[in-house]
Amino acid sequence: MREFTFSQRAYENLILCRSLRCLYVVDSHRERLVHRLQRAPDSVFTETLTNFTGAGFTPDDRLVVASRHTHLFVWNTSSGQPVRVLQAALSPLVKLFVSATNKAVTLLQDNTLQVGFGITRDGG
């Protein structure tokens, strides 16, 4: 495991565990795996041996957002289904931050920042 992130709302009792190529959503109260998030939708091409470089919950815990190579992936926390895939950059993503307004800020390998990716379809 590379990183653990707790859900924003304490009563959700969720932990997001990031390994190199897979994300795990775990219910800490029931001590069970809720979802294993790994694959991109079939229509999205990602480099084969790339790793997740960041992952987190949105402030309301409804979505999981993760960066992998040059993409941002968004999954529904309760269903585990992909919601959105964004081509974030041409340079690989190194770090991911999700703001309180559901915007993503990414640090790229070439040391540039990208600010303001709307995570949900309505941009919020």
Automatic annotation (TrEMBL):
It comes from the Eukaryota. InterPro entries: Quino_amine_DH_bsu, WD40/YVTN_repeat-like_dom_sf. SUPFAM superfamilies: YVTN repeat-like/Quinoprotein amine dehydrogenase. This is Uncharacterized protein. It comes from Littorina saxatilis.
